[in-house]
Amino acid sequence: MGVGRRVATWTTLSVALTVTLVLAGAFAASAAGLDPVGQAGGAVLGGAMAMALVPLGKRWAVAPTLERLGDLTRHVEATETSAGHRLGEIDDTEIAPLAQALNRVLDKVQDERDEALREAELMRDVVMGSPNGLLITDTVGRVRRINPSLRAMIDLRGEPEGRRPIEVVPIAEVQGLVDRILDGQTASEVAVVADQKDLLLRPIPLAGGGAAVLFEDITRFKTAERARSDFVANVSHELRTPITSIMGYAETILAESDRLDADVDLMVRTIHRNANRLRDIFEDLLALARVEARSEALVLQNGPILGVLAEAVAPAADRCAQRGQSFELDCPDDLWARFSPEALTTIVANLATNASKYTPEGGNVRIRAFARAGEVVIEVTDDGVGIARAQLHRVFERFFRVDSGRSREVGGTGLGLAIAKHLSLASRAHLEVESELGKGSTFRLVLPGSRGAA
Prior knowledge:
Beta-Lactamase, five-stranded antiparallel beta sheet, five-stranded mixed beta sheet, 14 helices, elongated
């Protein structure tokens, strides 16, 4: 190969290599998260590596080209702090394309940096301006940031950054939520009282590691809820006395029903029946108010549930027998759970009675209990009238009726399922429903399991 061809070949290779090294330096710096100044520095480093080829280039008579490439890298270094972090005009026709390519790289890096800064500013404004408190920790559970709303919401113990939540936040549940998130466990929201405020704590796992806890002040809602519950309880208590008197007088008159005209007898029986219904409503309202006013969860015990279920469903079994319905209780003798006997009895009795009420004569009612993945499930199933899908989310509301006409026929206050729902929450259990209109319903109570054995 002649000297001229070798020089031309080496010149081509040198330019290509230099372009590659300069661009690679810029992109490597960008990938490392450096700002545009650092990224331009990366390009300079790539150019410097190319300059190392100058001595070799001199041997091949290509020194002028490599020297001009060295001038370009020095120009990058000289202009890296200029406005826009771009190269100026390059007159040298040999290296002008390289300068233009480098400018495009720097423009793209600058655009990406500007977008990242805008996103960071937006998130900072949202966090700092939120009316809810926010605590953010790193991957080892140390506090990284607390927003102004949380500082105003509770009294902190000193500056929080770099310390564990339990050291600065006077709410033990916060540390528990953070620990569960960092351990990869499921953490549910928790309601607490701190500094005479009702707070709802919402745990939030962070995608990049670490944890966040959102503090929502629900004092106003809790105060309104307590006022409503107190009002309902007081009114119900006061109305029980006149209702008892009405029932007493009606029963006294009915004791002499053979001496009454037929029309009078019918009216007195109507008075007695509706007075009974009012009494039942007041009793259920008082029961619901007591459950809602409970500030702590129920005390749970470990034990077999068969005996409790048998006692709870006895009235429903008698009702099924009277209506010609089949009734079945299926529960293993050795099935244990953690439960409140009083709450479990009330919940299952209500569900079983409702199943019989809303199932036609000759229908089927089944109560089944079984273990599932560390939990105990109690299902109450019927093949009765069922519930429309659009109404399923309302079945646990106070006074909600699937069919008002039928509800008047079968009786009841419309509060039983609301009481069952609140008791299940107080028992650290949860209540679910599945139903299809015209085909029946399944109510499912899920209790925490127990490892105990009889």
